[in-house]
């Protein structure tokens, strides 16, 4: 028995034919290092600010794909090599998609932090020429106009989605769906021109008010709310509706108590996507709201200032010194990004609080 055991072939290890775990990471580090050296040599100015980080990451990933394919082909099977290459391609696509966002955030923060001070959030541009001043009037204008657009859009969009999912049948529902799809891709300038034309017919040419901006933004928000809410209402299981009907609950109460609470988290996210879609619009607000250097909180009387238009005017028509105007424009862009971030965090918190609690037995 011992002779048979001694003469038996050794068992194959389950890890045979696999690269050690540290090899892919070592190849990735080497690829990024080689790419960084290449771009350092190409950076003839020697300025660290001019170093191309995005190009370094992209070239490094391309080099890594070649190295991991070659190494895996030599040390593993062809199937493992193809799997590693495809995994790396997916990761590279993710990084390429992420690079513009990171670059945008980095640029806005670096250029906008210079004027991110107390004066910027407590002063308007009234009687300000050159340095100083702030955008408190534009911040309040953006919040009020966006709030007005949300109050108009969310009830209309949500009830339209409920109609399409729960009641809509036949040609009318198909026509509404088609029109909503068309409105989803409407240019923002068209919405602004439409509202401006309507108010020009009613109150005369040159009329500009905050409520006009809210109406223009609501034209852009409603289709987004409808499409997002419709898809989320459709994924609510029919068993929940049927159980409610079996208990004698009417349809409208089933929608209010069962369907909407079940999908409230997704609906909230859909609303936030719609707000994020319109809060940075410039063209419709420039047409319907205009711009003023002082604070105006009355949405039904006179022009108002908004952050997108404020940033546009500061960058488009700089005075002297020009750096002060560009700094205010970048600070307004950074403030707008932070507002969107805070709103999204608040939406996630609201969705988490009001989402139905799943309890196990």
TrEMBL record:
Recorded hits in PROSITE patterns, A to Z, give: ABC_TM1
Where are the membrane-spanning stretches?
Answer: 22-41, 53-74, 86-114, 134-164, 176-203, 209-226, 258-279, 329-351
Localization: Cell membrane
Q: Which Pfam families match?
A: BPD_transp_1
* tRNA-binding listed as a keyword: no
The alphabetized UniProt keywords are: Cell membrane, Membrane, Phosphate transport, Transmembrane, Transmembrane helix, Transport
Q: Which residues form the signal peptide?
A: none
**Quick one: where is this thing mainly located?**
membrane
SUPFAM superfamilies per the UniProt record, alphabetical: MetI-like (SSF161098)
The ABC transmembrane type-1 domain is annotated at 139-347
Membrane topology per the record?
Multi-pass membrane protein
Name the family. Belongs to the binding-protein-dependent transport system permease family. CysTW subfamily.
Q: What does this protein do?
A: Part of the binding-protein-dependent transport system for phosphate; probably responsible for the translocation of the substrate across the membrane.
Q: What NCBIfam families would the database entry show?
A: 3a0107s02c
Q: State the name under which the record lists this protein.
A: Phosphate transport system permease protein PstA
Organism encoding this protein: Microbacterium gilvum
